[in-house]
Amino acid sequence: MNVVHMPTELLSGVAEMDDQHDRLFNEIVQVKCALLEVVNDHTDGLALLSGFAKDLVAHFAWEEAAAKAEGIPFEESHMKEHRRISTFIRAKVGEVSRGECNIPALMVFMERYFENHVVQYDLKLGHDLQAAHVPR
Predict the structure, then answer these.
(1) How far apart are the two ends of the chain, measured CA to CA in Å?
(2) Residue 80 and residue 50: Cα distance in Å, rounded?
(3) If residue 132 lies in a helix (H) or strand (E), which one and from where to where?
(4) In the prediction, which pLDDT does 43 show?
(5) In sequence order, which ranges of the chain are alpha helices (DSSP H)?
(6) Separation between Cα atoms, residue 105 and residue 79, nearest integer Å
(7) CB of 94 within 8 A of CB of 46?
(8) CB distance 63 to 17 below 8 Å
(9) pTM score of the predicted model
(10) Which of 31, 61, 74, 136 is least surrounded by Cβ atoms within 10 Å, i.e. has the fewest?
């Protein structure tokens, strides 16, 4: 599979965050391809979706830790969104494993939801992290 890079307008300017976002966007594409490729066997896609869920939780933990390390207050709404997305993805792992998930709708939703999250929350966090490194 070719590597698909996230759109440049989603770059935060924080290399580690941007690298993680890019990997997550690529994981979404891999999950999508695996789940849509084989109609009645979602074993590979389910494994990739489970891996994505773990990587997403790790990314959220990194964001929260990076803000804390810089003394940046982490917005409650951003933290709630992390919990909401994590809960949603874990629920979808269960639905896929039981054969109860509308996979095409899930994949469109995941791509858009993650992209919107980056725009709504992570670009500001990236700006705040960069500003914490500006000499005063």
Answers:
(1) 45
(2) 21
(3) none
(4) 84
(5) 15-37, 43-69, 76-98, 103-117, 123-131
(6) 25
(7) no
(8) yes
(9) 0.87
(10) 136
